[in-house]
Specification:
Blueprint: E1 4-8, H1 23-40, H2 49-52, E2 54-63, E3 74-83, E4 88-97, E5 103-117, E6 122-123, H3 128-135, E7 161-165, H4 180-198, E8 208-217, E9 228-237, E10 241-249, E11 254-264, H5 277-284
Antiparallel strand pairs: 1-3, 2-5, 2-8, 3-4, 4-5, 5-6, 7-9, 8-11, 9-10, 10-11
């Protein structure tokens, strides 16, 4: 068992309006930890191209408890759980640990990644040397709760909300693709716009936290003047939570799909609370 430990600095700008680290920012932390493990502190050389010469196939992120800003870095453990012919899977845990070894876990996550040749825009197989590097970073713990099935391909009878998302120049990475972290920001914007349209008074009427987010990446998003449409809909409604599905497209092809579990909570106690009848009705409404 070999896990890599990264001490991630926090920034004041990482916080949201609740004073918590924003759900999108955690994914940026995961990226920092992944690059640190593969590029700077791998147990043997040979895996450097896996740090940045990869594309993300899927992220699965579970949010446990809020993290608030402080000057001390937060700890992130990263490890490899599976290696295939042309992809590998990593798990992460963001946490603090006290003097007795007791952990406060903020996030558990899993990523499937695939080596990619950006000059030819094509995937490639994992080399024998890279396989050796990944083997030395492996652990049997598979990370967050397992998922079943693919993300929704059809909204069924649910009412779709469309949000036009404009790509900023700063969203694009070294390879001229929108960075994988930024997709979380895009679906967050679309989700907030949808929620604001559901209830009179807008999103400010809702006390919500994100319980989990899964994002699948199908095709790269590129910088262009025209916006990318994002369709979002309520996939299911529970007692104190509901699921929002989102689909990013270029107008013709689906580029990414996402699913977010939203939890209603009491800001004073920090505990989940049941959805009101009016909230249930708004979320369950059909066209």
């Amino acid at each position: 068992m070999t896990r890599h430990l990264y001490r991630c600095p926090l920034r004041w700008a990482d916080m949201d309006q609740l004073g918590h680290v924003n759900n999108v920012t955690y994914v940026d932390y995961l990226q920092e930890a992944r690059v640190d493990m593969l590029r700077l502190h791998a147990p043997v050389s040979g895996g450097e191209e896996l740090a940045e010469g990869v594309v993300v196939v899927k992220h699965e992120v579970d949010y446990r408890v809020p993290l608030v800003y402080r000057e001390e870095p937060v700890s992130i453990e990263t490890w490899v759980t599976k290696v295939g012919a042309a992809s590998f899977t990593m798990a992460y845990e963001i946490f603090d640990e006290d003097e007795h070894g007791e952990r406060t876990v903020y996030v558990q996550a899993r990523s499937q990644l695939a080596p990619y040749v950006f000059s030819t825009e094509s995937p490639r197989r994992i080399t024998a040397t890279e396989r050796d590097v990944l083997a030395q970073l492996s652990d049997d713990d598979e990370g967050p709760r397992p998922r079943t099935g693919r993300l929704a391909r059809d909204s069924g009878e649910a009412r779709r909300h469309r949000y036009d998302c404009h790509v900023r120049f700063s969203d694009v990475d070294l390879y001229r693709h929108v960075n994988n972290v930024t997709y979380f920001e895009y679906v967050q914007e679309a989700r907030i716009a949808m929620m604001s349209s559901l209830v009179e008074g807008g999103i400010a009427r809702w006390s919500l936290v994100v319980g989990a987010i899964d994002v699948e990446y199908a095709r790269p998003i590129l910088l262009r003047p025209d916006p990318y449409p994002i369709d979002s809909w309520v996939e299911s409604v529970g007692r104190s939570s509901f699921v929002v599905a989102s689909e990013i497209s270029d107008g013709e092809n689906v580029l990414s799909r996402a699913r977010a579990v939203m939890v209603t909570f009491d800001p004073e106690t920090g505990h989940s609370v049941p959805l009101s009848d009016s909230e249930q009705a708004a979320l369950s409404a059909r066209p």
